[in-house]
Task: structure prediction
Amino acid sequence: MADFDVIVVGSGMSGGWVAKEMSEQGFKVAVIERGRKVSAEKDYTDFIDPWDVEHLNRKTEQDLKDYPIQSGVYAFQSYTRQFWVKDHEHPYENAEGTDFRWLRGYHEGGKSIMWARQSYRLSEIDFEANAKDGHGVDWPVRYGDLKPWYDYVERFAGISGSMEGLDILPDGVFQPPHDLTCAELDFKSKLEVAFPGRRLIPGRVANLTEPTQEQMDLGRGRCQARNHCFQGCSFGAYFSSNSATLPAARRTGNMTLIPDTAVHKVIVDEATGRASGVETVDIASGETRTITARVVFLNAGTIPSTMIMLNSATSAAPNGLANSSGQLGKNMMDHHSGARGSAILPGNLDKHTFGRRPNGFYIPRFRNHTEEAEGFVRGFGYQGGAMRESWWRSQHKAGVGADVKAAGREPGPWRIGMVAFGEVLPNEKNHIRLHETKTDKWGFPVPVLDVQWGDNERNMVRQAIKDTRAMLEAAGGIDIETDDPDTAEPAPPGIGIHEMGTARMGRDPATSVLNAWNQSWDIPNLFVTDGSFMTSAGCQNPSLTYMAFSARAANHAAELMKEGSL
Ligand SMILES: Cc1cc2nc3c(=O)[nH]c(=O)nc-3n(C[C@H](O)[C@H](O)[C@H](O)COP(=O)(O)OP(=O)(O)OC[C@H]3O[C@@H](n4cnc5c(N)ncnc54)[C@H](O)[C@@H]3O)c2cc1C
Ligand code: SF4
Result:
């Protein structure tokens, strides 16, 4: 008899959902997590302010040495470094001429502790895109299949947002939105007059603005508008596995979390062709162990789950597990960013804001939707915010003490800042493989990432810069800062921290790894519901979509288990 009904590999954003759904369905679930257990008391630093920390929370020389890649991301600070991997302990290689930045944290909850909580649905336009313009393969689902699951995960997670009635960005089950600031409202009204197809709306974020009874029963409270979320939230006020899905799974009594344990392989029973469990390595001792289950879910994150499948090659599957299509490891996507801009918006000199809203505004995609574009397919959306110029400068320049505080209290001009996140096309050439000889200290082959953006992404970034400038100008912005739209390049792959697509779902087992239920075509009791299943990227931040697919796949697998076919 198997040790567990279900193994979930990874306790992050997607794994937490599978753990919750399966435990609530009455199955015995093992969540195997390579990182440590996390507790609010030990790991969260949301009650610490920059002036309480050595070096005023600036990165140290040692940080730059220990975290040369991770420390490049905005969310890495002295009081959040406990959530990021030390780069030299977790090596990877880039193929010649490429530069993927792999940003991550290995601990209970994964990147769900570190995320910026922006939560948007994909639309019918996104699910149809591949079929219409011929890039990648067709999604095996449409928006209607996902809508009830978006509703379901939003209701539980708690997403704040406004109802807008846009077909490019479907509305959802929202808690009240955060207010836009005076300068954002001003920008909104001017840009919507100048460009009738464009809209500026409050960001949709997984921060509780009006907690439900179900959320309060899990010990979660209302967001206090402190903007300390990257430090972890002791109120459980933003959605993470740690605040929401894992506690829900734990209270069923059916979940066993196995921390400090890395999965290296999925084991397949050659007689039945099904997964029988996983081979694990104890992070501290290096000891290996086999854990068995009826069903295995891979939720280790796009790159690790793909590595595990590639590393599970057998004589029957020499190119990697579940890879009869040859697509495993290919079609790596992210969202390209790099089109940034800012300007001072005159007026509102005497206005204040309440608290430190952990959010900003969103401008949904308009290119190749309400407005055509030349030189690329698909499109981009913007995230941004407006703050007093004095706050902006103190965030971006060194400075402490009474003068800085006094300047922060003075009324003054407002600066709008915004950045575009654009859709990356699925492209077989962008792939992950395992190094033939090099391994990490636990004996796992080091991944080699061979990913670079092409003309579609480059042309999109340049258009996004032109559009940024045009919108800031139309709103009367002065002191406009953007990159040069004729020479700008997309930021390196990985910087969007939305890696996805390397075990895509599709309609045909010859061209895809997973079916419409995130289930391997080759190994029926193997499911993959982290970002690797994504068939196209849309331009919306993807985690809400991972949650919806994870809940849907888990409930489907539960049905198959109950009827006895799994
Ligand atoms: C700074 C930052 C900002 C972000 N902002 C947003 C945003 O605003 N909106 C949005 O939608 N997304 C955002 N993201 C991305 C979001 O965090 C990810 O999309 C999401 O967490 C991915 O979920 P996952 O389950 O695939 O992986 P993760 O959440 O990373 O979880 C994977 C888990 O698997 C574990 N693991 C890895 N390898 C193994 C192994 N071999 N064995 C066992 N366990 C393993 C890891 O330790 C980890 O706990 C952001 C990310 C970061 C870092
Ligand atoms: S702003 Fe809200 S969600 Fe973020 S740390 Fe503070 S209370 Fe928690």
User: Anything to note?
Assistant: The longest strand covers residues 288-298. The two ends are 14 Å apart (CA to CA).
